[in-house]
């Protein structure tokens, strides 16, 4: 039985257009879930999806958020703007942001703060790359990502999630095995216990991401510390993503929260 409410997030990245938007709306508008379901489209489609899915149980999130509140920062979108638009969640520190847009643990910390200030639920993405995995330093990397992102940050009663996304599994078709992912998730929870105490750490949902498909969803969710999924490529097909959501939803039926 899952003690934490399962959650599944679609991250469209820089993909999709009106076709994907329309097929997703058609698939999800009348469905109900006990699990939490989010779609994070490109910024431009956030308002459209919010409009078309306003009476559905699907929530909308953003793939990123600015660390700035306002001012002369061309191309940025603030947490306040996202919250005002109706977003409920924002991804922070996705590995593609870290590797291609120079984000780091320090910028993640500021973004977490901005999300908390505006009642957006942040999902902090962490994970080791292939070189770090082969060097046997996965735990060091994760520990540093978690500790440096949260140090000196007052989380108060805010809720947030961690998404473990091994970089070598993203878009490669080589997902971590459920056992490997569970081992890492258990380690992440230990780190959360050290930082926030046992009670809070047990409430924090830890998602797995990296080549999730409808074929590995159930076995991943069966693991005790895998509380949800962050889905990239497989979320670009509305029916495929629906199948993932329906499998995740089965775990919500036993959830306490
Ligand atoms: O945010 C999603 C992840 O980067 C996973 O992407 P993927 O499912 O295409 O491997």
UniProtKB/TrEMBL annotation:
Protein location: Cytoplasm
Keywords of the record: Cytoplasm, Gluconeogenesis, Glycolysis, Isomerase
Chain positions recorded as substrate binding sites: 11-13, 171, 211, 232-233
EC number: 5.3.1.1
MF (Gene Ontology): triose-phosphate isomerase activity
Active site: 94 (electrophile), 165 (proton acceptor)
Subunit structure: Homodimer.
Protein name: Triosephosphate isomerase
Lineage: Bacteria, Pseudomonadati, Pseudomonadota, Gammaproteobacteria, Alteromonadales
